[in-house]
Amino acid sequence: MFEWVVGIVESMGYLGIFLLMFIENVFPPIPSEVIMPLAGFAAARGELELWLVILSGTLGSIAGAWFWYFIGLWFGRKRCEWIIDRYGRWLTLSREDFDKAYDWFHWRAGWAVGLGRMLPTIRTLISVPAGVARMPQLAFLAWTSLGTIGWTALLAYAGVILESHYDAVESYIDPLSKGVIAVVVIVYVYRLVTFKPSPRRP
Fold first, then answer.
1. Coiled-coil stretches, from where to where (predicted)?
2. pTM of the prediction?
3. N or C, which terminus of the chain has less Cβ within 10 Å?
């Protein structure tokens, strides 16, 4: 994955960064923690402009967030409840869990989206409840942009700072990415085994 991301950034430049960050939001196993620091490396070497690196990454990430927002908007609350009633065990989510999350999100949507966009894994998933809760689109765009700019700028600047250690990056990023995936799988299996569904409602 590391070499593939490097190849895209080197061959496609800003467009490659945009596309990678869009894909990263649609298909989370491609981590932004790899994409943006690599783009920052390129900027540190004078191959790209740092502000355009941040802009390209931010726009691609926002486009991916919009994708999941509209998925959530299309599903809506009723479809989500129908899915949870039938497949809640496999989602490790009960109707009660969903109702609590929905009520919490309804009152804290702005902060949830803004901060959620700066947290690994959560930054992708947070767009779905925003759509399900029918968060106003302009508010969603504003909070998503705020959080996304902060995240992409932080990662890009990290790439600039670590530019002298470019050759050593792969040795710790790949294991870290695999470790994150392993933790997600372990947590899912635990929740699956200990899951207790709520009584089904009409």
1. none
2. 0.73
3. C
